[in-house]
Amino acid sequence: MTMTEASLDPDRLSREKSFHDDRFSDDSSRAPTKKFYDGNQASFEYYYGRVSDITPPVNVLEYGCGTGSSAFELASRGATVTGIDISPVAIEVAEKEAASQGCSANTTFVEANAEDTQLPAGSFDLVCGSGILHHLDLERSMAELQRLLHPEGRAVFLEPLGHNPAINWYRNRTPEMRSVDEHPLLDTDLANMERQFHLQANYFGIATIAGGVTAKVPVVGSAVTQLLAKVDDRLLRMPAVQKYAWIVVLELRPR
User: Phi first, then psi: what are they for 116, rounded to 5°?
Assistant: First the structure.
């Protein structure tokens, strides 16, 4: 199913909601991929660093809720955070986590569609999310992002890319790990974003993907990961190679 076909499908949001309800109830199907994420922590560290670069008081909107959310750390630093998710199970998980971390006073979690949030226009200094945009209709979600951001605000997203043949081979072999409607981002998607926003893209994960196999091996794993990170650093300086990365961290500012 193409992105356009999925966008027009009236059952798409119901499928996404069901998929994420199941995922937050039991995410064991994704366990085999953890080793690859372990070998690519640099992308997440960079993303969290950009998201955490705030000077309170700020209003933050996070797409996607759950235990891996940035909402709790941002709230603990004085930000007022609204978290949205299409999954009511995710909302429940986030509310429990906020209570356990003592930051409920600074957080609000709402079941909502990121393509049409119904939240006030121009009210957020930062919008962020990890692994969210590739589940959305990008035309609608970018228009909604433009509406939500304060003129001096910014958005930060961590997303998978869809050009690497080896990664796509693995995706095709493991369809149970993904929703039928998700679409890893392509260079054409980034080009469309750049027409609407000032866009900065940072790429991660080519050689380091292989490091996932040894990431947890004492001494050896760390050495291999560091070596592969140096290889990635050189490779991903070349624009022609960047589209074949696994992950991109996007920073968008209103034009």
Answer: -160, 80
